[in-house]
Amino acid sequence: MRKILYLLSFFVLLCVAACEEDDNPYESEGIITGLDMRLCPSPCCGGFFIEIEGVTYLASELPQDNLDITNITYPLPVYLDWEIINDNFECGGDRILVIAIEAQ
Fold it and tell me: What is the rounded CA–CA span in Å between residue 42 and residue 48?
């Protein structure tokens, strides 16, 4: 009887842990790794390097609603909503538009 009770308790705890809601309303997690300090005349330079799922992207601007970009200490883990900018092929396709961002 004890074994059944322990087994049942284990499964209840497992279900509770698995059914926890994710409080993160953003689509991705990332890390702002630093500023792009390259000087060049093309629109492919400048902005922030952001690593998302092992891929480093370049964002020209960051929304300042939930993030103070004047006092960032790198690397900075963030939650963000973003999309790839496809209209600028000469930049290699690594540019993104950050729609919303918040420090973790």
Answer: 16
Between β-strands 95-103 and 55-59, what pairing exists: parallel, antiparallel or unpaired? parallel
Instruction: Report whether 78 contacts 31 (CB < 8 A).
Output: yes
Q: What domains are there in the chain, each with its CATH number?
A: 24-103 (2.40.50)
CA distance 101 to 78: 7
Q: What is the distance between the alpha carbons of residues 82 and 71, in angstroms, rounded to a whole number?
A: 22
Per-residue pLDDT tens digits for 38-95: 887 766 788 899 999 999 999 988 998 888 888 889 999 999 999 998 765 567 678 8
